[in-house]
Amino acid sequence: MTAPATPAYRRLSVEERRAQLLDAALTLFAHRAPEEVSLDDVAAAAGVSRPLVYRYFRGGKQELYEAALRSAADELERCFTEPQAGPPTERLGRVLDRYLAFVDQHDAGFSALLQGGSVCETSRTTAIVDEVRRAAAGQILRHIGTGRTAQDPPGARLRMMVRTWIAAVESASLIWLDEGKRPPAGELRDWLVDHLIALLVATAATDEETAGAVDALVSQERVDGPVATLARRVAPRVGGAAHLL
Predict the structure, then answer these.
(1) Which domains does the chain have, with CATH numbers?
(2) For burial by CB atoms within 10 Å, which of 40, 57, 59, 62 has the most?
(3) Which is nearest to 141 in space by CA: 123, 169, 165?
(4) b/e per residue, 233-244, with b = 16+ CB within 10 A?
(5) Distance CA 202, CA 196 (A)
(6) Is the separation of the CB atoms in 109 and 31 below 8 Å?
(7) Taking a C-beta distance cutoff of 8 angstroms, is the pair 165, 195 a contact?
(8) For the segment 108-150, what is each residue's pLDDT rounded down to a tens digit?
């Protein structure tokens, strides 16, 4: 009886080997702070030798970390990419579902990334994180229907409001991790959507551009959607403030 043939060894291309090492590094950085991951750890996770890691990342751990961060940042930016179809709050809900799934998967690495202070933190890593924040802000501004273009960008008040909300989302994500991922991700998502609605309404009270954005957003919402639901919940609770009107 003829013995089964042994599969031939397949040499990886440069791109495939780099991808393999990056994948191993991303897995480690996702669950441990950067300073707790060594090149030996990456080599072991990828099943290769330490010198081989150096061959592909001559800058050592710092270069590998920055490459892994760039890869994670690209994935995070994709979380905020959503077709401009359907009610804006439903689009936002899908964006937040993907974002919170990313946070859940990257856990300790996400905390280290946003809290800073890592020995691997440099002006380049900070720039990568800021780039993600700017990209997220641009996507949110498009979804709330400003109708403005790159040549005619939204005004300062509306931009500040969106950046404030993104900062709040980041903070809430870190607290969520600290609290053992409670409440459930779905509840956190709904609360963050409500938070943006509330910020929009508060800003619209003194900013005409934001008021126009709110009008455009509301016109696309469903009668049983987050905007209407929040209004119904809030109205009875502020009834006691009627004497202030």
Answers:
(1) 13-70 (1.10.357.10), 80-236 (1.10.357.10)
(2) 57
(3) 165
(4) eeeeeeeeeeee
(5) 10
(6) yes
(7) yes
(8) 777 766 665 455 677 888 888 889 899 999 999 988 865 555 5
Task: Return the sign of the alpha-carbon dihedral for residues 12, 16, 22, 25.
Answer: negative
Residue type, 97: D
Q: Which of 176, 188, 187, 183 is nearest to 106 (CA)?
A: 176
| Of the listed ranges 8-17, 198-207, 221-230, the one predicted with least confidence | 8-17
- The model's pLDDT over 179-214, given as tens digits with 9 standing for 90+, comes to 999 999 999 999 999 999 999 999 999 999 999 999
Whole-angstrom distance, CA of residue 154 vs CA of residue 160 = 10
Cβ burial of 14 (10 Å; 0-12, 13-18, 19+) is exposed
**Rounded CA gap, 44 and 18, in Å?**
15
Quick check: 144 and 213 in contact, CB under 8 A? yes
Two structure tokens written together for 3: 């013995």
Closest C-alpha among 92, 114, 93, 94 to residue 103: 114
Listed in sequence order, the DSSP H helices in 144-224 are: 156-178, 185-204, 208-219
